[in-house]
Amino acid sequence: MKLIYQGKTKDVYQLEDGNYLLKFKDDMTGENGVFDPGANTVGLTVEGAGKAGLKLTKMFFEKLRDEGIPTHYIDCNIEEATMKVKPATLFGNGLEVICRFRAVGSFIRRYGMYAKEGQPLDSFVEVTLKDDARQDPPISEDALHMLGILTREEYKILKDLTIKISNIIKDELAKKGIELYDIKLEFGRIGEDKHIALIDEISGGNMRAYKDGKYIEPLELEKLLVN
Amino acid sequence: MKLIYQGKTKDVYQLEDGNYLLKFKDDMTGENGVFDPGANTVGLTVEGAGKAGLKLTKMFFEKLRDEGIPTHYIDCNIEEATMKVKPATLFGNGLEVICRFRAVGSFIRRYGMYAKEGQPLDSFVEVTLKDDARQDPPISEDALHMLGILTREEYKILKDLTIKISNIIKDELAKKGIELYDIKLEFGRIGEDKHIALIDEISGGNMRAYKDGKYIEPLELEKLLVN
């Protein structure tokens, strides 16, 4: 097993069977000790954060498997905070696909002239480039297509899958009286047919969730959802 | 005649016949005395800049009229640096529609991971909100539609008109050996049928033009094109 990539919150190992092992770390994105799902830096380290993130990821990826949604998930080992996944190729150097149910965060920073903080949005999808140096810029379908990052057919699948997956997660949270405001997903191409599948993780670090109008921190969310 | 709006480079007067008069000023956008077509501040004042901008605008709007493209243009008075236009309503508080033939400026600042400075782009269209406080953020068709700024049908017309108009201007410049890299247009709804028409101006301040690989300043461009 060979370490091939060290990420902000996960390390990636290549396995001898051709699959990969993701090791969830206790580092969380943010700044100066404050968690921020959109941040490009590690802001804090919390013991047990990796394991908690993996528990939630396992729950959601197994739920998606039951619903017939393609993902890279094979299985996981909670004790070791590792998840075994299929190999995937990224779109370009990676995209983040955001689905919004309420207007908060970067949406308001960009479109605050036309939207009120917290106003409902109907599964609104937008794509940003993973590019720390350029602050993850938003990118249109036309630009994605023109720059050869994905085809128009792939964009349509990506958008449809994003809406489907985000609504499944929203419904799961709603069962515990929690409201999903927005969520950030990553996709890749998997297998010989290069079908589009959800990759990376789905944990508190990928979403903004609220209960009774109050924001829930990722670790708190994981406690509320996994028991 | 009543002054109703003072812009960075133009003032707007309402006429008694229901039309409007645009007075072109000698102020140009930029910072610290350096012209920048994308800037949100007045950076310099050059005697004759208003008149030169109007001459080019007149030339292009009359060319577009000959080609059957809808615009707000009625006529103009070069001596007084004024242009008479039809009343138009904006999309939201105003959009800028950019057509790119080569990758420069904000395109490279956002998508430099995937594009090289100066690489050819095939009439690539993008839309930004006119919102100085939020640095004119780019916005997708989905967001424009969702926020009620324009309909999907209007977006299609806007995009098609932008490609058509930009290529007419590109061809005009090419006749003098000048290459158009990008151009910024504004549109509004005109008349009882609310048809989409080009508004504002088309001058050196709206575009980046190059000759023999060298950038041409707006006033120089106006000299080269209007004789």
TrEMBL record, chains A, B:
Known InterPro entries for this protein? SAICAR_synt/ADE2_N (IPR028923), SAICAR_synthetase (IPR050089)
Q: Which Gene3D superfamilies match?
A: ATP-grasp fold, B domain, Phosphorylase Kinase, domain 1
Q: What is its EC number?
A: 6.3.2.6
Keyword hit for NADP: no
Which Pfam families did the record assign? SAICAR_synt
Catalytic reaction list = 5-amino-1-(5-phospho-D-ribosyl)imidazole-4-carboxylate + L-aspartate + ATP = (2S)-2-[5-amino-1-(5-phospho-beta-D-ribosyl)imidazole-4-carboxamido]succinate + ADP + phosphate + 2 H(+)
Give the UniProt record's GO annotations in the biological process aspect.
'de novo' IMP biosynthetic process
* Record GO terms (molecular function): ATP binding; phosphoribosylaminoimidazolesuccinocarboxamide synthase activity
Q: Where is the SAICAR synthetase/ADE2 N-terminal domain?
A: 4-215
> Which keywords does UniProt give here?
ATP-binding, Ligase, Nucleotide-binding, Purine biosynthesis
Q: Amino-acid biosynthesis as a keyword?
A: no
**Pathway assigned in UniProt:** Purine metabolism; IMP biosynthesis via de novo pathway; 5-amino-1-(5-phospho-D-ribosyl)imidazole-4-carboxamide from 5-amino-1-(5-phospho-D-ribosyl)imidazole-4-carboxylate: step 1/2
Please give the HAMAP family that the UniProt record associates with this protein: SAICAR_synth (MF_00137)
Its family? Belongs to the SAICAR synthetase family.
Descriptive protein name: Phosphoribosylaminoimidazole-succinocarboxamide synthase
Gene name of this polypeptide: purC1
